[in-house]
Write a structure and sequence with these properties.
About 35% of the residues lie in helices and about 20% in strands. The protein has about 425 residues and is of the alpha/beta class. It comes from Streptomyces siamensis.
Length: about 425
């Protein structure tokens, strides 16, 4: 069985959005009504796809570019090897600037003007154009679920799958569900019993911290909550308290800069933990630089996700990704997931070559109900439409630990690191 959408991953990214500046207003869907019938891309013409990325945004220029870069690298290699049935894949990029207005403009340009067959590896801070994409029946393949769009609309297929009805309302009646597999893993495999959750005294941060706390308590943890001032955070006091209270694990609801400060404070007070747990967005090769002032905490960093560790080059699918991206200045898990999204589209398009690569044919491949793994890069991804949310699910996870000199080291096989866990509700 495929694992459910991760509440923690999605809300961690939403938190990043909310801790930044305002992201612009949304244009009504009627401004971009679809009045034309999509044309078939046939013959020897290139197969055109679009990639929407918040490449420039209020939270920094490089925060969301990983999936785009990974997807583009896949298409470059695919084209070098002859494309799809002899046809090149032509990639049209659009930077939405991290705003809803910009996102709608990108969607309008790519769908109505460039006539793309599909969107791939969408990574948008404010996916305001999602209703327009769904209305036009354009498949959006392998996007990052920063908001609830991939659990709301048909024809949108996020990189982690969905079990929700996707009838225009997020999840089930406005509620999304996520499992407690991350907390179960550290409790069962590493014997953790006490966990600290560090947050800002800011609404988005506090809401995310409550979600993490809810999951930890459901798994029987003693939970230590630490809240710091958003404007003038005293991370040293929080670190000292979580040390005194014997925290085994540290989870956080703070931004990347705050994380680095928290780690430094933990080193300063000699706080030793089993794991300082982070999410897939921070699963990058820049850890040594980002946490240069906190070697002890740095080597206690663990990341969890739903894709195979980009450092696991013993795996042939990972090795292919790394060979194609050897010129990158740094690597990240989001790059690998963008590569997997592009492969997903390519597999869908290859299934359509006999009848023609159309939006409808690609969408039919996505909707066929079979789990997809991108050659083993992803935990099996499934899109179903369940009338009622599951109360429990068998959920698997990919786990890696940072070690200086070695980078991220995989911890067991992701396809067998699985637990039957409860599904907890939250509102996006």
């Amino acid at each position: 069985m495929s694992r459910p959408a991760r509440a923690a991953e999605g809300l961690a990214l939403a938190l990043l959005l909310l801790l930044g500046t305002a992201c612009g207003s949304r244009l009504p869907e009627s401004d971009f009504e679809n009045r034309s019938t999509p044309t078939r891309q046939g013959g020897t013409a290139p197969i055109r796809v679009g990639i929407v990325t918040s490449a420039t945004s209020p939270v920094g220029g490089s925060a969301f570019t990983g999936p785009r870069d990974g997807a583009k690298a896949y298409f470059d290699r695919l084209n070098a090897r002859g494309g799809i049935d002899g046809r090149r894949v032509e990639v049209r990029l659009c930077d939405d600037g991290g705003s809803g207005v910009g996102n709608n403009e990108c969607v309008h340009r790519l769908i109505d003007e460039d006539k793309v067959v599909a969107l791939v590896a969408t990574t948008a801070l404010d996916y305001a154009g999602a209703p327009r994409v769904s209305h036009a029946r354009v498949p959006d393949i392998g996007g990052q679920p920063i908001g609830p769009a991939y659990d709301t609309y048909p024809h949108l297929y996020g990189i982690y799958g969905s079990l929700a009805p996707r009838d225009g309302t997020p999840g089930w009646g406005g509620k999304l569900y996520g499992g407690t597999e991350v907390y179960r893993y550290f409790k069962r495999v590493h014997g953790a019993r006490t966990a600290a959750v560090v947050s800002y005294n800011q609404s988005a941060s506090a809401a995310y911290a409550r979600l993490v706390t809810q999951g930890l308590k459901a798994e029987g943890y003693q939970v230590v909550t630490e809240q710091v001032d958003f404007a003038l955070p005293n991370f040293r006091a929080a670190a000292a308290d979580l040390k005194d209270r014997g925290a085994d694990l540290v989870f956080d609801a703070v931004d990347t800069h705050g994380n680095a400060q928290l780690c430094k404070a933990m080193d300063d007070v000699d706080a030793e933990v089993i794991a300082k747990v982070t999410n897939v967005q921070n699963w990058t090769s820049t850890v040594a630089e980002d946490y240069k002032d906190s070697p002890r905490c740095r080597n206690a960093l663990w990341a969890t996700g739903s894709s195979r560790d980009y450092e696991d080059t013993a795996n042939p699918a990972v090795r292919e990704f790394r060979d194609a991206t050897k010129g990158f200045g740094s690597h990240s898990q989001w790059q690998l997931e963008g590569w997997a999204a592009a492969r997903w589209f390519a597999d869908a398009a290859k299934s359509c070559t006999a009848a023609g690569v159309t939006r409808a044919c690609v969408d039919a491949f996505m909707n066929r109900g079979e789990p997809y793994t991108a050659g083993g890069l992803l935990l099996p991804v499934t899109y179903e439409r369940l009338a009622e949310p599951p109360t429990t699910r068998r959920a698997c996870l990919s786990v890696a630990r940072w070690k200086d000199g070695r980078g991220w080291v995989s911890q067991g096989d992701m396809n067998s690191t699985c637990f039957q866990v409860p599904q907890l509700s939250y509102r996006p």
